[in-house]
Amino acid sequence: MVQAVINPTPKDYKSEVKPTWCPGCGDFGVLNAAFRGLAGLKLAPDQTVIVSGIGCSSRFPHFMKTFGFHSVHGRALPVAQGLKMARPDLTVVAVGGDGDFFSIGAGHLVHAALRNIDITVIVMDNEIYGLTKGQTSPTSPTGHITKSTPYGLMASQFNPMATALSLNVSFVARGYSAKPKELAALIEQGVQHKGFSFIHVLSPCPTFYKTFDAWDAATTPIPAEHDTADRSKAMLLAMETEQLFLGLFYRTERPTMDQAAHQLTQQAKPFDVEQYMKRYA
Amino acid sequence: MVNEVTIRIGGESGEGTISGGDILALASARWGYHVYTFRTFPAEILGGPCMFQVRISDHPVKSMGDHADVLICLNKEAFDRNVSELRHGGVLIYDPSNFTPEIGDYITYAVPFNTIARKEIQLFQTKNMVMLGAICGLFDLPLEAIVQVVQSKLSKSRKANATLMEKNLLALEVAKNYVTEHLSKRDSYQLGLVERADRVVLNGNQAVVAGALAAQCGFFAGYPITPASDIMEGMAKELPLVGGTFLQAEDEMAALAAVLGASYGGVRAMTATSGPGFSLMTELIGLSSMAELPAVIIDAQRAGPSTGMPTKMEQSDLSFALHAGHGDTPRMIVAPASVSDCYNLITLAFNMADQYQMPVLFLTDQSLTARVESVDRSAFKPAEIQKREQYQPQTHAENGSNGTSNHEPVLANAGSASHGYSRYAYTESGVSPISTPGAGAAVYTATGLEHDEFGHPNYEPEDHTAMMHKRFSKLEAAAHVLPIPERYGDKDATIGIIGWGSTEGTIQEAVDRARANGHRIASLHLKILSPLPDQSIRDFIGSVQKVIVPECNYSGQLANLLGAKYGLQAIRVNKFGGIPFTAGEILRAIEEVNHGTSSHQSHT
């Protein structure tokens, strides 16, 4: 249940903490899109929690005037899921980067998808480790030369969209930090979606891997005729790497674990130790 | 005639060894006896050697017993493995169709378990009933006690049917009659009549679950691990019935992360694990401490290192629990000693976590998780809940209205409108009122980064120094109000024993026996290991000439701690085979110290 505040503007979600990001960082665009998206949904800041892990993008909660939980590297998803299971009345959004969600915390993504707990994850993917100053990431392209791959990356490139679709994530979308208006709309839809929403955001690093021009050229909206209920077609779009499609790839409705768990509590009674101990008498 | 007997059943897992022992313990307790069990688990999932020992007495029992008075061997391997634990002059019961024991210092009774079950009852699975019937016949335990338990167990079983019930009850009867008719009693163990009492019978893990529910735990996340899985399974079943939620996490990092998420949401939350899982949780223990989020973490210790011996006990995670995590990280540690402690101290752990906003580690061990005790029902009272101090925007925003609270901000600008809510406000106790998401609440960002009082990242030397003081000052504040340990034994003792964890009853029994032998001796049992009760420990050490520290670990982890903190040169008594101490072993150590013949190490 989300309580409306009276006509909030994006600025109402902005905290007094100044972002630590480099000038030109894609994450500024994502932050602005988040302000807009939350304002669009009129989300109450005191009932909205932004959860993150560690990385440049994970500083995000500090810059928002909502509740925030800046946790440890890789663990944003389990923190967010625990919170939502315990407090299904809150709006919970997990944010972070490609290192958080596709490397150190990649294991958690699988289980978040399976549980379909009603949270939204926004992944700011810059295909590089920025906070640690320029090492390769799971989403770096094969052959990419970084400080940790001086002879070129010898691994394959991780495909976030195909992975999310293969896990049957119930809401799969991609945005681009340079298109904050479209991204804000995706964030609105993702938060409104009942279930686990995965929003992959291309968010370039101006310091260690400048992908602005390449992504400006490669990104294109998903064709209007695409059926967002068709997972196979969505998978074809996701497998395309020359063109990077933006928009909603796939969406499906299925029960969420937080609601199912709370259904179980409908007949709950306060604990009565005297009654409980009878089983051991 | 002694109204006490310690019975050990040795056999193969799956042939009724454990279920027979369980029924014997439950029946004895329901009949009015005190019971205390000890069991081993096979490494195999199905089959494998195991044993169940139950001490049955008309007096309260504090330990598992030094030796078995009666050993029942369901096969030859059970004899080979367990005969060394049989008391001199004890009773050996065996089936002659399995083996013939060599002649030894014991009284033997041959009972044809196999033949009775197979031929007379025509159902081999009733072998454990035959064994129980024989026990009733030999030691005067009323058959009715067993019958009641069997009836109630079988009527709840999915496999239950009238024939099965009939055959089980028949097996009890036939076996009892067999021993009465064919064997003449040559031993002195006898149970007979006892006063009925209002007791419950449960193990440590079951008591932890009950305690957590009583303490209003509203969320549990965990990952399966021996010997803590029972707690997870219990919470999965019971939490929805009291309005809570449960999550089986993908690993232990996720488990504790989810617990912190729930705790951030204002819900009392807990996880339970054992050593290997606890190792994985350490990054989140640091986060809990740094972000000042309450969490209760149960470590059911098992023998390490690494995967170690999952089904064996050890008290070897104390050093790790004290230091787990990088950096200087305040945490609290509670170690229950008994089944009733498992219930009562888990409430204390939740209260400590909430009141001091930090992780509380709860150290049980494998022997306590599985130990069945009969406990007076009065030990299980409704919990007294002391919740975290909530930040109230309307009162605190105007620089605090309640001048008497020691949690009031002491800095002039704390809570000022220009900075918003001062989540990590400096206070006298170090505890800052916490805000919980919900309508009208003051927002803030919890963080594992060093931060200022508003939760904003801050790396200034003055800030880090002040925040370190703030976080650690909570331990000092707690030390003044937490319960202190009670001295047990003589006021004018010359020898003192300091212990921790599941060994309390065993140590106290050794103290009782040593005093009966004329020694002047006392013990102190620590149930809160962080913050330590400094004054109680100093007073105790100062009151005796020598201090023995018995621990089930290799390195003497409590002795090391007491040496480092109080300069104590303890006499270390360490056992690390995976089996708990017996009172006799501790008594032997006391006597060696008293005669100056101690072979135990005494160093710091």
Quickly list its features.
heterodimer; A: alpha/beta; 33% helix; B: 604 residues; alpha/beta; globular
Structure at a glance:
The complex is a heterodimer of chains A (281) and B (604). With 281 residues, chain A is of the alpha/beta class. In chain A, 33% of the residues lie in helices and 16% in strands.
Number of helices of chain A: 10
Tally of DSSP β-strands of chain B: 21
Radius of gyration of chain B: 27 Å
Low-confidence stretches of chain A: none
Strand content of chain B: 15-25%
- The computed structural class of chain B is alpha/beta
Largest sheet of chain B: 7 strands, mixed
**What is the terminal-to-terminal distance of chain A?**
43 Å
**Percent in strands of chain A:** 15-25%
Determine the fraction of residues in helical runs of chain B and give it as a percent range: 25-40%
Provide a count of the helices of chain B.
Answer: 19
Strand arrangement across the biggest beta sheet of chain A: 2-1-3-4-6-5-8-7
Overall average residue pLDDT of chain A? 96
Description:
The complex is a heterodimer of chains A (281) and B (604). By secondary structure, chain A is α/β, with parallel strands linked by helices. Helix content of chain A is 33%, strand content 16%. Chain A has ten helices and eight strands. Chain A has helices at residues 26-41, 76-86, 98-104, 106-115, 160-166, 180-192, 212-218, 231-239, 257-264, 273-276; strands at 48-52, 67-70, 91-97, 120-125, 171-176, 197-202, 219-221, 244-251. An eight-stranded mixed sheet of chain A has the order 2-1-3-4-6-5-8-7, sandwiched between helices. Chain B is α/β, with parallel strands linked by helices and 604 residues long. Chain B is 37% helix and 19% strand. In chain B, strand 4 (68-73), helix 2 and strand 5 form a beta-alpha-beta unit. At the A-B interface, strand 1, strand 2, helix 2, helix 4 and helix 9 of A face strand 7, helix 7, strand 9, helix 9 and helix 10 of B.
